[in-house]
Amino acid sequence: MLVAAAVCPCPPLLVPEVAAGAAPELDAARAACTDALGVLAAARPGRLVVVGPVDGARPETYPEGTAGSFRGFGVDLDVRLGAAEVAGTEQRLPYALAVAAWLLERTGWADAPVEGLGVEESYPPGLCARTGRDTAARDERVALLVMGDASACRTLKAPGYLDERAAPFDAEVARALGAADVAALTTLDTVLAHELRVSGRAPWQVLAGAADGADLGGSLLYEDAPYGVGYVVAAWS
User: Fold this and answer.
1) Band of the pLDDT at 49, cuts 50, 70, 90?
2) Which of 42, 33, 46, 50 has the alpha carbon at shortest distance from 206?
3) How far, in Å, CA of 234 to CA of 170, rounded?
4) Which top-rank group of organisms is this from (predicted)?
5) In the chain, pLDDT over 70 holds for what percent of residues?
6) Could you tell me where the beta strands, DSSP code E, fall in 55-90?
7) Residues 6 or more apart from 51 whose CB is under 8 A from it?
8) pLDDT greater than 60 at residue 88
9) Which of 79, 184, 206, 226 lies in the 20 to 30 Å Cα band around 87?
10) How does strand 218-224 pair with strand 231-236?
11) What is the mean pLDDT of the chain?
12) ∠ at Cα 99 (119, 203), nearest 5°?
């Protein structure tokens, strides 16, 4: 059963070493992520599952201890998902889950075993919901850390250039995540999300499936688009 969830953005720029001189611009987002992870810890979960976008046709699982790094961004920084080490595996965390691992290390997470789940950005809503329900059913007390960005089209300098549909889409996403509105998340427009380069749509719909019937309340902790990309932080409990 799902007992809590934290929703965080997943740009590598969230890691100060990657952002370098621009790091202070995301201080408020980092603080909100810390608060959201505090809600997870307070729920005393028996298992934490980190969900984020990945490349690939099917969901990919990452056991506790899977390593990742930010060397691809020119930074000599390695992370690990949880405390344990995984022997004999070449599997590496995708960037979204590496950011999650950094957040967990930064806050000293030691409240429950951790594992990762990657879902492809075009994964169908029905399969996302089923994946969420299956994930929530794996333990009596499951918490989710859900990584993903909103649109990448909020300004002229955004990665996807300016799209007038982006701000209304992001506003509805922020409202739904802040209100723990499962129905609204389940029915997000997948075509529009793809056109707006939204990486969080599938992970949010996994969350919606996991939360179905859990009767959780939500709180919006942060919403902004500092680089023309929508970043949302929310906590459910």
Assistant:
1) very high
2) 50
3) 13
4) Bacteria
5) 97
6) 60-62, 67-69, 78-80
7) 116, 117, 118, 119, 135, 144, 145, 146, 147, 203, 206, 207
8) no
9) 206
10) antiparallel
11) 94
12) 25
Tell me, what's the pLDDT at 83?
77
| Residue 46: DSSP 8-state | S
| 148 dihedral zone (left: phi>0; alpha: psi -120 to 50; beta) | left
CA 27, 109, 71, 150 torsion: positive or negative? negative
For the chain, how big is the Rg over CA atoms in Å? 16
Q: Go through 84-120 and write b for each residue having 16 or more CB atoms within 10 A of its CB, e for each that does not.
A: eebeeeeeebbbbbbbbbbbbebbebebbebbbbbbb
Give CA–CA dist 88/237, Å, rounded. 37
Structure tokens at 68: 């990742």
Q: Are strands 2-8 and 231-236 parallel, antiparallel or unpaired?
A: antiparallel
Q: CB of 190 within 8 A of CB of 126?
A: no
- Half-sphere exposure of residue 91, counting CA atoms within 13 Å on the CB side? 19
* Per-residue pLDDT tens digits for 129-179: 999 999 999 999 999 999 999 999 999 999 999 999 999 999 999 999 999
pLDDT at 55: 87
Strands (E), the chain: 2-8, 47-54, 60-62, 67-69, 78-80, 114-120, 142-147, 218-224, 231-236
